[in-house]
């Protein structure tokens, strides 16, 4: 069995490779092979035994080379090319796609639609906000004790990318998840103020969340996210009114608790120092 991991330069794709290795995927290379599709193999320093195909989704010839002989694929989200990539996967005989999408009906729905249209058996992974998105506060925290941002009372259950990768690897190695969609969250619902406080607690500092509103909030998010800034702000407004509940899906799939926000901050505290 040959497993293709796309987007292996990015955080989750690279973690999926590591998780597959930890699960013993290379202990018997005659049975399971891992192929990584990446734009920059030197950057990710893939371990020995992992086959590397260099390229990007917008190069059909490189996609075809990456899919040759592949049985299962982890599909990183890239909406402009997802339909063509899924069509190529079907032509190559891929028998299972595990895709990274998002909450149904929103921006990443196009990924799920393209995967299902290909006719290949699928498993959709639908995480909410990543804990790693908190690194957008890192420059302010390194510079002082205030975090200026919008909608401090907006609350969700952010998930660690490490948990997403762990689930993707296990689903890739199993035949028990075909046709399933898994909404993924972290283990607790936290407001943005609480997240900032958790970072401060790990650093031994008293951080203050300073609320931005109106034009200040719009300008802040447009500077961070361009055209997506307004969309993200609207989402925060909804989370202030309707906090996202934490779901037990991660624990059920991994047979262990999902990583807490405090643990994620502990592991990544140097990003804020």
Layout of helices and strands:
Blueprint: E1 2-6, H1 11-22, E2 33-38, H2 41-44, E3 51-54, H3 60-67, E4 72-75, H4 82-92, E5 96-100, H5 109-117, E6 122-127, H6 138-143, E7 146-150, E8 155-156, H7 161-172, E9 180-184, E10 190-191, H8 192-203, E11 208-212, H9 214-225, H10 228-241, H11 249-254, H12 261-267
Parallel strand pairs: 1-2, 1-4, 2-3, 4-5, 5-6, 6-9, 7-11
Antiparallel strand pairs: 8-10
Helix pairs in contact: 1-7, 3-4, 4-5, 8-12, 9-10
Structural account:
With 273 residues, this protein is of the alpha/beta class. The chain has 2 domains: 2-126, NAD(P)-binding Rossmann-like Domain (Rossmann fold, 3-Layer(aba) Sandwich); 131-158 and 187-246 and 256-272, 3-Layer(aba) Sandwich (Rossmann fold), CATH 3.40.50.720. The chain is built from 12 helices and 11 strands. α1 crosses α7, α8 (192-203) crosses α12 (261-267) and α9 crosses α10.
What structural keywords apply?
single chain, 273 residues, alpha/beta, Rossmann fold, 2 domains, seven-stranded parallel beta sheet, two-stranded parallel ribbon, 12 helices, 41% helix, 18% strand, globular
**Got a strand count?**
11
Helicity range: 40-55%
How many domain regions?
A: 2
Number of helices: 12
User: Termini, distance in Å?
Assistant: 43 Å
Mean pLDDT: 93
**CATH architectural category of the largest domain:** 3-Layer(aba) Sandwich
The topology string of helices and strands comes to EHEHEHEHEHEHEEHEEHEHHHH
Class by alpha and beta content: alpha/beta
Oligomer: single chain
The CATH class of the largest domain is Alpha Beta
Uncertain runs: none
Strand fraction equals 15-25%
What overall form do the CA principal axes indicate? globular
């Amino acid at each position: 069995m040959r497993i293709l991991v796309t987007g292996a330069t990015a955080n989750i794709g690279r973690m999926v490779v590591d998780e597959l290795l930890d699960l013993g995927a290379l202990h018997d290379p005659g049975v399971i092979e891992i192929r990584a599709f990446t734009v920059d193999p030197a950057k990710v320093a893939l371990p020995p035994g992992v086959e590397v195909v260099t390229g990007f989704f917008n190069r059909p010839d490189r996609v075809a080379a990456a899919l040759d002989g592949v049985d299962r694929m982890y599909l990183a989200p890239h909406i402009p090319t997802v339909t063509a990539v899924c069509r190529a996967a079907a032509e190559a005989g891929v028998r299972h796609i595990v895709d990274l999408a998002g909450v149904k009906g929103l921006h990443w729905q196009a990924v799920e639609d393209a995967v299902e249209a290909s006719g290949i058996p699928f498993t959709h992974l639908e995480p909410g906000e990543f804990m790693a998105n908190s690194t957008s506060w890192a420059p302010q925290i390194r510079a002082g004790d205030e975090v200026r941002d919008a909608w401090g009372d907006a609350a969700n259950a952010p998930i660690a990318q490490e948990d997403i990768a762990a689930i993707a690897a296990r689903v890739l190695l199993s035949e028990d998840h075909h046709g399933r969609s898994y909404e993924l969250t972290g283990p607790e619902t936290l407001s943005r103020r609480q997240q900032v406080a958790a970072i401060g607690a790990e650093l031994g500092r008293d951080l203050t969340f300073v609320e931005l509103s109106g034009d200040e909030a719009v300008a802040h998010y447009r500077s961070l996210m361009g055209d997506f800034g307004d969309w993200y702000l609207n989402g925060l407004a909804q989370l202030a009114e309707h906090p996202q509940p934490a779901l037990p899906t991660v624990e059920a799939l991994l047979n262990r608790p999902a990583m807490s926000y405090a643990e994620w901050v502990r592991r990544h505290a140097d990003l804020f120092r």
